[in-house]
Each structure stands twice: as C-alpha cells, then as structure tokens.
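Standup notes
- DV: blocked on the single-chain target, sequence here:
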Amino acid sequence: MPLRVPSWETILLNPHQAGNLRCPNHPVKLSSCLSFLEKPNIAHQIPFWIKLLYTLYVGAVIPIYWIKYGPANFLWFSDIALILTVPALWFQSSLLSSMMADAILLPELFWNVGFFLRLLFGLNLAGLSAYMFDPTRPLYLRLLSLFHIFLPPLLFWMVYQLGYDPRALLFQTLLCWVILPLSYLITAKAENINWTLSPGATPQQ
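- DV (later): unblocked, structure below
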C-alpha cells in the first residue's frame, strides 16, 4: 500500500502529524528528523495567528533591508534572531527560542533603554537606537526597526511557553564563534557589524 504523504502545510503546523512519513533514503521518520528543532509533547501551543503575522512581517523586512542595508546587515545578532524566530515559531522550538533569547538580552535592553529615554524624556544617549531619531532616514525604515521592541518579549514568552532548553547557551556560543569572525572578515570596517572593532560605533538597524 503506497505511503500517504501529508502536505508541507500539515508538517509545519503540526510536525507530529507527519509521524508515518520517512526521510528520503533513511529509515527514520520525518518527525524524528525534526526533533532537533521541535519540543515534543508541548502543553501550550503557539497560536497560528502569531506565527502567520510574524512570518509576514519578517518576509517584508528581509527584502527591504537587503536592498537598503545590504546582506551584511543580517550578520547583526538582532537580525539573526529576527529571522530564526520564524522557524522557532513554526516548529515550536525551545532550543531556537532559548538561543535567540540568550543572544539578544543585553543588546536589546540597551537599545530599548536608549530609545525610550529619548522618546519619553528627550535624553539623547548616543548608542544602538540613536538612528531612530535621525530625520534623514526614511520613516518606514525606522518603523520596521521597531522589532527591537517586540522581539524580546515575544522570545521570552516563547521560552516561558516552550521551556528553556539547557543546550541553548552552548549552541549560541558556537554560533557566535561563526558569526563574529565573519562580521570581522567579510564586512566593511565602517559598518562595525556586531562591534567587532569597537563597542557602540555603529548602531544596529
């Protein structure tokens, strides 16, 4: 009897429904292949509308940032977190959620402190979010950067829902060992991606 293959939409929405589908040329189930990303037996499901709206937002940000800032901009850890949160949502991955929460905690804290001090009290602290008040930058680009505000609460809520994966710090450290040398070696020195030359010289987009 031929194997009935579920659609990719079914797999993305609920990887466990792909239980009988096997990986090509490998005698293990597809659900086992995805187990690195997903957390089995999740009690609290992430609502579909959150997954959809966030995915549409990221789908709009990526081409605009690519055109305006270039591909090197996606080496910023905040942009990496922005993108990897998409599979973290769809696979309901505690590992990816925990990794991205670890990665952006301190930089996004500084970004938001600087932004809200300037917005609410007029205190001009040169730093990560200074570009948000630069009138020479198009307003739509600055509005797209508001993900720095909602991404940290989203990730921490996901970690609360899915649980913190104790492997996250190790995997995030390994990712840093890849991203930081790339940021130094293949990007323009003037961009100072991830502050590999000096802290705070260039704001995150």
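- Follow-up: The chain has eight helices and no strands.
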